[in-house]
């Protein structure tokens, strides 16, 4: 209290002074004005910080930490290093040219004993098995018979299972001793390590993720374009109609927005399925034959139609809020200056709607590339998005949590890159979301 | 075009520009009917109330816009834009955006933009409404200057009568969607044709009464509160009809010479000293809002509030107009 009034007093005496020069602005008690001003401001800042602290903590716990977890999970590879620690240490000196020396086998035998006791050997074996099918039984089988073996273990192991002679098997173990691995990212782009340790494309029948990323991108782009095409005129109408009718129209726009996503998606299923309303009507009208009903759902068409409908309000609302602020006199001015209606619209009205359009595009596109429920319900096989595959990798017996994490991280990065590019292009500070 | 808000002046202007359809009648520009000509082909420059400068273009781009849509060459556009900027004395502002200009500067750009394609007619819709008083007066002067220099016709809408009187050659006074009177500023003030114009332009004293007799350039009116007055019959229907008399405050004399046609009793209610004149509020024939401007002359008889005196005026200065209710 006293600070601010004193500051005001000091300021009135010489409003242009700076605190470097002698005789500069001071408050009544002699402290330089800048210092006391800073003190007063930092107090306000501290207060503000404490006010947002709960929210900050909430965000940290529910948002930042899980994302960090996800990213670290996507590269984590601890099994071999943790559960075969001695082998991991011994194998580092191996050059990979021939079967490893006895020391490595002995270390492996030690690790196996400990692993059997702690019941952790299976996990390490499973990790190796993911790269070389059959490796699990090699490891576990040898471990089971370990009691009957005696050093040198090299000969004993090879006698038990000839896989122990396999250089690829050992180089895999050596590779997997690294606790950080890019393998899930390689998988996410349909690449993998060859048995020789080179990065190669996966067999064509296994390739799925690249195609899905691309599909997610182009379908999102298409959905965004459709939203612009459908939303722009509606937003324009909303902004120019008299209040009474525009309110009604606004409710028509918002009503689906308030309706449950599942209800809306199911409604589209009812409408579009082969025994659905639309097909029935077309058959009744004689447009199509009863045996040739159109497939409009459980494929890309279904996903596009349903998602366009669901995301449309996200395009209309920011557009509307911007259009509402454009006075009609701009168009009139352009017309009076000699521009045709079309030219005035393109050269004057449209540039002024860009902040809303850009906001709408950003909202719709980013929502679309991460969309899950609608593609899952109406997408069938050809209409699903990358998020559906992420979900698949998170559940069920074939779950690969780390692959899911890698896919999700790529999606997150894609969104960030997109946002960055958009910022460069349009300038996010110019956007108007509502 | 002058009139109170809601009197139809902007609507009329919009019809001239082509943004409002005319439900009846025809609009001619240089003897050619333009009712069916779309706005962009009318070649009418327009200055809007809030300037309507395109915010996403620079000042130069704003000025170039009408030239560009006419398919003019780049160098031609450049010279014309420069000339227009020079005309409104903003030559170094071409690369700024409208939002970076002050109200007065925006106003000038708006005028320049309406002029740059050399239209036959310029419409201005209360262009100075958003400016403060001093700037408004300066801009009135500048617009008048541009108008005189270019010789282009300007149709100017305002609700400010001083602005209308100072800037116009002819003023159309609007009320209730009708032109009440179309004449020079002087005629509007000196010779209003009806009570609305008399009331709207300048200060006016009203007295209502009934016409008794009309003879040539004079008529006799019996006032509602007693007494008869000789007046100038301008807009009355004949003996027996109601009328409202209109009197300018500066045409009334206190303690008039005996040769005045009309002399009435008056009671001084209020005196306001205004330097060059004294504004006296009197009660005359039941009207308590009767204003007289008394010149501040040294030989003037000293007036006192509450005093009873006499006021008088010539019959020609007292115009008998259509009757309106006096509040």
CATH class bucket of the largest domain in chain A: Mainly Alpha
Q: How large is the share of residues in beta strands of chain B?
A: 25-35%
Strand content of chain A: under 5%
Q: How many H/I helices of chain A? A: 20
Largest sheet of chain B: 5 strands, mixed, barrel
How are the strands of the biggest sheet of chain A laid out side by side?
A: 1-2
| Spatial shape of chain B | elongated
- Strand tally of chain B is 17
How is this structure best described in words?
The complex is a heterodimer of chains A (434) and B (327). Chain A is mainly alpha-helical and 434 residues long. Chain A folds into three domains: 2-73, no CATH class; 79-181, no CATH class; 209-430, MetI-like fold, CATH 1.10.3720. Chain A is 68% helix and 1% strand. Chain A has helices spanning 2-13, 33-73, 79-83, 85-91, 102-118, 121-131, 135-144, 153-160, 167-175, 183-188, 209-240, 243-258, 261-272, 277-285, 300-323, 328-336, 341-369, 373-378, 386-394, 401-425, and strands spanning 191-193, 199-201. In chain A, a hairpin with a 5-residue loop joins β1 (191-193) and β2. The radius of gyration of chain A is 33 Å and the shape is flat. With 327 residues, chain B is α+β, with helices and mostly antiparallel strands. Chain B has two domains: 9-190, 3-Layer(aba) Sandwich (Rossmann fold), CATH 3.40.50.300; 203-321, OB fold (Dihydrolipoamide Acetyltransferase, E2P) (Beta Barrel). Chain B contains eight helices and 17 strands. Chain B has a five-stranded mixed barrel. In chain B, a hairpin with a 4-residue loop joins β9 and β10. Chain B is elongated and about 75 Å long. Chain B starts with 8 loop residues before the first helix and ends in a 6-residue tail after the last strand. The A-B interface holds A 327, 329-330, 332-341, 343-344, 347-348, 351-352 and B 17-19, 38-46, 48-50, 52-56, 65-66, 69-70, 113-114, 117, 123.
